[in-house]
Predict the structure.
Amino acid sequence: MTTMEMTGASADRVAAMVRQHEVEQFLYDEAALLDAHRYLEWLDLFAEDAIYWMPIRRTVMQRETDREFTKPNEMAFFNDTKKLLAGRVQKLGTGRSWAEDPPSRTRRLITNVRVVDDDGAELGVESNFLLYRTRLNSQEDSWIGSRQDRLRRVDDSFQIVNRTIRLEETVLQSRNLSNFF
């Protein structure tokens, strides 16, 4: 390998590390906005054509793993456009959202962030999450799962074009799903 080739390979590795860092910081900043109840700023992270989708998980036999999650156009916990997300955010701001008055206290942990593809305009990103929520004096919930995001490059940051949320549980123990993942 020549010095030029090593420099090119090194430059590619450095570019990949910078991209990884930028994606991680974007996702960590997003989690911080949600934990601080800064929902309007969070909503700005979504592209106008965004889809926010959480399929239902089923317990299936090994031979039926292709049926483990519901498919698009089947029943889902969330199948929201940006407009629907904006309606949910607006409702939270009214003080009339019984599931969030008083507001929940949340903490989101985002881990195992991986950029799985990059076509120059958009990136495919996978991550894991733990969302912990406590309400009132004694209600506690936690959700663990994975997310598949499609991020669009916009100026020096990203916008979320598509988010698929997959919970590990098949039966939800929480009283509601009033939070965002």
